[in-house]
Amino acid sequence: MDTETQTLLNDQHSKPKQGLSLTNAENGVSFDPSQFQPRVRDRHISYGSINGAVPLPENNRDPEMPGQQAVVFRRLPQGMLSTLSSEFESLDYELCENKIFKEEESKKSPGSITKQNATRWVVVFFIGVCTALIACTIDICVVEMTKIKYGFLKKYIEKCVKENCLYIPYLQWLGISCGFAILASVLVTYGEPVAAGSGIPLVKCYLNGINVHRLHRLKTLFVKAAGVTCSVLGGLAVGKEGPMVHSGAAVAAGLSQGKSTSLGFDFGILKAFRCDQEKRDFVTGGAAAGVAAAFGAPIGSGVLFSLEEGSSFWNQNITWRIFFCSMVSAFTLNVVLSTYHGQLGILAYDGLLNFGKFPDIPFALLELPIFIAMGIIGGLAGALFNQMNYHISVFRRRFILSRWAKVLEVIVVCSVTVSVGFIMIYFVDDCKPLGAKDAVEFPIQMFCEDGQFNAVAAMWLQTPEASVRALFHDQPGTHNPLSVGLFFITYFFLACWTYGLSISSGIFIPALLSGAAWGRLVGLGLYRLTQGAAWADPGKYALIGAASQLGGIARVTLSLAVILIETTGNLSLGLGLMLTLLTAKFVGDFFNAGIYDMNVQLAGLPMLPWSAPPMCHGTQAQYIMSKPVVVLKEVERVSTVISVLEDTRHQGFPVIFEDRFSGSQAKQTSFGVLRGLILRSQLKILLKEKPFCSSPTGSTRPPIPLETFRMYYPRYPAFEDIHFTEEERASYLDLRPYMNPTPYTVPKHASLHRTFQLFRALGLRHLIVTDDNNEVAGMITRKTLARYRARICCGAIDFVELPLGGHGVPP
Amino acid sequence: MDTETQTLLNDQHSKPKQGLSLTNAENGVSFDPSQFQPRVRDRHISYGSINGAVPLPENNRDPEMPGQQAVVFRRLPQGMLSTLSSEFESLDYELCENKIFKEEESKKSPGSITKQNATRWVVVFFIGVCTALIACTIDICVVEMTKIKYGFLKKYIEKCVKENCLYIPYLQWLGISCGFAILASVLVTYGEPVAAGSGIPLVKCYLNGINVHRLHRLKTLFVKAAGVTCSVLGGLAVGKEGPMVHSGAAVAAGLSQGKSTSLGFDFGILKAFRCDQEKRDFVTGGAAAGVAAAFGAPIGSGVLFSLEEGSSFWNQNITWRIFFCSMVSAFTLNVVLSTYHGQLGILAYDGLLNFGKFPDIPFALLELPIFIAMGIIGGLAGALFNQMNYHISVFRRRFILSRWAKVLEVIVVCSVTVSVGFIMIYFVDDCKPLGAKDAVEFPIQMFCEDGQFNAVAAMWLQTPEASVRALFHDQPGTHNPLSVGLFFITYFFLACWTYGLSISSGIFIPALLSGAAWGRLVGLGLYRLTQGAAWADPGKYALIGAASQLGGIARVTLSLAVILIETTGNLSLGLGLMLTLLTAKFVGDFFNAGIYDMNVQLAGLPMLPWSAPPMCHGTQAQYIMSKPVVVLKEVERVSTVISVLEDTRHQGFPVIFEDRFSGSQAKQTSFGVLRGLILRSQLKILLKEKPFCSSPTGSTRPPIPLETFRMYYPRYPAFEDIHFTEEERASYLDLRPYMNPTPYTVPKHASLHRTFQLFRALGLRHLIVTDDNNEVAGMITRKTLARYRARICCGAIDFVELPLGGHGVPP
């Protein structure tokens, strides 16, 4: 190998100088390290940092096309709300086909490939099982504790109605709820802030390629699971479905690695899966398993949700595994829950969330305009919800910063929720006879006559899931329009206030519940108008309303339709549901983004959209790329490597064959002939392992095997702790066996559109911009591309360039 | 512009010579056209043609890694059955961002973008409606004609049983069936051979990026629709669902272009959609609409089928349109069919194929092993089916070549089908009482007593769909195990023989029917064993068997599960179905490929699989690329362009800045500095439009607008018909405004894996291999990549390199 390399080097040296570099005088640059130090320091501010990117020229024109004018991206001022956080690094979904990888590959036999494939299926099986078990635990805890809580309250309310001491159960209710809420909030706020919210936006970002710290830790998983249980028990307007997706993802990330750094053990198995790419595929499966467990809908929702929200590159093989994972998860849940309910082997429990079967209600052509109208209402209400939540989130980010303030806010919200509920129960006299059909778990008489119960109390004194079920299935006469209307208004605003608190909470159920409330109102109106026509079933309209509301808030059309169909077991309404959902999505999208996307944007996460901004074919890569670029030579001085790592925060460095630095850096257009790309993580491991050599022509020792690199994944050594002797600093590091010899590149006159497409389709992390002579001209990363955004609102397109800014806080 | 270019040219000229070219003496190559003529002729045999590809070196080693050995691809001998057809060209899914495109883009306003987007939705709406209308027409024709046919036969059979003249209805049956079969066969064989078969493999190939000729013509659509109606009426073992997918695709391709070349009119609208990329998105929607109409299952099947079988790059925006298209299609079908059946506005008809609602049968844990066992049977039976069909297809390709022979084969198959049916009816006395529950449309008494009917006759004297429905829903006692068993065996072999005939035919229904037959047998056995346990419902097992059989044949797991769930309206069986389908797929895949993939391979279609062959990280692009490469200069002599087009069959030519040809071509490693890529189709249009200039430095006239290029799409002028004067031949053609200035490239030491991934993820047509100096070293096309295949059979991987060969016949 050494002679080979030697020849190559000589070859290149003997070749006459080439390229567009400004000064050809500095040929034959030697390896004098003293030349390096200041240069690297000069290049301190570079791509990835705030000021690195070269601004677009005032009139962003293609010099070769005088008549053409490209889209001008409006530069936004740096502010807290429209800034891309520079905190988040990307994941490496690109396979680094370096020499040590190829060496390992060449030793593999077809048998080992088959074995590895089989292992993937086994791992996926366990991911499904574990996700379902966690879901079961949460579900059983919530069900049992709710029974105790509301049973206790019912006893005291019944007693106190007679004895006129209603303040006692009110205080008890307040106390119990706030207790759980505080627990939920403390767990998240002091334990693991990344576990706040539904987790779906973060999982989306992870699958998009953003490295969200601590997202998949064991602690996060625990906080998420325990936190959501407490939130639901606290009586807050939250669901437990969103967090299940995050839990599934965390389970997948943990199980697929065969080790736990938190617990400090390593089974030594599944080493081959210790890379971002493999992990991502498992996480996709885990998220699907989470959805499947939450909704008991393995087919559509599990797989579709993962696809609609998650991955960008559709591969049949991965899909089958996702599918299998969802299936196993749904099945395990089914078995455990049916056993728990004493019906072993009957497999009738279809998920955490089961809205009960709808009878086959036919629907008529006549109803389609009503569905569309409801879609419009849902879209408008959803847009309003998102806009209000946006402003609340902005307020939170500005003023609620300390931990105790966050916990305090949760207490306030919880108290308001309980108080509103209590006031409504107290003042609204909506008495219904105790029927055999409507299975209210805790019918409370309040001021009603004997044999009757207070319908409003029934809505508040149960889990939100049960309330949704009630609105879907109760007989037409059960609910008073006034009380349903009041309930909708209060719950809508409560849900909006609650989402984004420092607790683990989902938005699915609150959205469905408020939608079901106004949907039922519509249904009740139609029922009266038509004097009880068969099609004007209030329950059906509650379902349509629920779909419409959730569609308007989350804008997850396809998978949502399937989830609702699967959870209600009703296929005949499919068309109606879809029509409503599509309408709600269109109407909502006219005003603002979905709630998840809004969360992502608020947190400054550099998530890449599905496609490049429109009309950006005229914007060239050379105008958006970051430069100057910090480059390394194929065989580099150790001291240079150390100072590069110390002085920059870049995650990838192009490896060049020779240097062509002129005096003035700003005017420099080329940084050397591209030979490869090396990552910061690889350099850190190399510095730790020290495979140094004394000769600047390269090492003759066999390179460090890939095995060693995997050992460190995903927490790389902090190189500040490594000490180097003077001798080591003066020696060389041969990067050639470790660098990616064929990184993806774009020519510098490529359009933003093409650059974006390449980057997105392949899930890249670094894209090197080269000039006509294959010399490094600049660098494009996720943050570069995420900055250029087309915001479509109210029919107009706003082209903005976001500034890169300080510390982002996860949503 | 001109001066810019000039400066650039001078710049490049003054730069010292660079690169690895063997002779540096030939600097300053002038534009003397006489140098070109012989050179181009020399390069006659090149990439794209049979012998162009440079063979892999004997021991395909990476010269830089002496220890490493890459996978050796076994070269297959050229033969009819394992040859990649060189007939099929690729589609251009890559956007050509040339100057004229950018000029057009820069004139667009945000409003025009919105308008174009809205137009897409409108077009998609009409695609859905039209596809559904075609489906309705086929359905109504089949239903009505079947009624007449079997009503007529029933009358004569009933009469002749008494009068002992059964040969008369037999001959009538034979006559009617063969009449339709001949019509079906003549239509396809003499009318449009590409309409043969189910069309799903061809649509898959189209979406994969292969330009299948005449696939989307109006004539093809007509032959397909009329042909499948005749095939079904001919009583052959075919379904009408597969052809619906093809019809939908054809409708989409037609409608989205706003013109019909066949009918010779051009509405002048939708011009912006006249490119392969836009057309593909519409075709995906059309195929989904076809599935949705065929199965009445818009959610899962429409969208999922398109995704599972079709597209490779998942984009949310396209998915929503696909979803909408399926929805519109399913809805239109519903409205039309419910109107036709006199129940306007009730929307109860769920698709062409409706297997009737299953009651909610719970299933028990106990049954899961049975489901897995049935999955194994289905997988084995499916593998057997595919293997037999493969050998039949090979036989057909060898010996049944003339048109009349194809028609004759159809007649033979039809006669055998009718005869077998008649013999079974005659000899098997399976008499059942005429119940009110089992709605047999044409109960035939035969030799049964009064009040009874012949159950075997009922199976044969109806459409296959009705037979499937009967097996799913008939009471446990309805079918005699012996007759069902006999029916399965005969039908299985008949279906295998029928698929691949020169008629328009689907495989879904025959597979489901034979599966339902053996599934029901299993169910009957269990029913007897358990003495009529509630779970041992023969209908349920018929469904599982049907799924298993189809899963074993087509290996379409995910969408199939959803289709069956949607068509039977049964969600509770979802888990069982999925388990069975996955098992069947795994077992089947162990032995051979799915029937669609087998069809594709037999036809030599260069379809790219989902991922690169395993273990090919060591195989470098430079070993598989085609070279020498025919290149053109930025401003090229017209005579040279003409001779290049005349002498080669290549579809794309790299445009280079300067030439570096040495004496011996075989040793040449570089073909000039890459500047762009121009397509044959573009050159043809340019030669037709003649924007020539007299100066070798380029044209000063404004270039031909993109509008003109669109006008010719997709049938480009035959340049043989264009005449050139001597003056024209001597003038120059400036390619710069038309060429793609940023074609995708790979470095020559990139691995096959990476090359494949880039090519597949972006749907490319040409991938230029460059050396370290950005000079053209070779070319990789779809056919290059499709040649390297890993065939996995019985647990072993067989790495083969397919030869490129003669004329492929579509499956």
Q: Structural class of the secondary elements of chain A?
A: mainly alpha
CATH topology (level 3) name of the largest domain in chain A? CBS-domain
- Separation of termini of chain A? 51 Å
Work out the count of structural domains of chain A.
Answer: 3
List the quaternary state of the chains: homodimer
Largest sheet of chain A: 3 strands, mixed
The total count of strands of chain A amounts to 20
**Low-confidence blocks of residues of chain A:** 1-69
Strand fraction of chain A equals 5-15%
Return the CATH class of the largest domain in chain A.
Alpha Beta
Q: Indicate the mean pLDDT of chain A.
A: 80
CATH superfamily of the largest domain in chain A: CBS-domain
> Helical residue percent of chain A?
40-55%
Number of helices of chain A: 28
**Quick one: which chains have the greatest interface?**
A-B, 110 and 109 residues
CATH-level-2 architecture of the largest domain in chain A: Roll
Describe the structure concisely for a colleague.
2 copies of one chain form a homodimer. Chain A is mainly α and about 800 residues long.
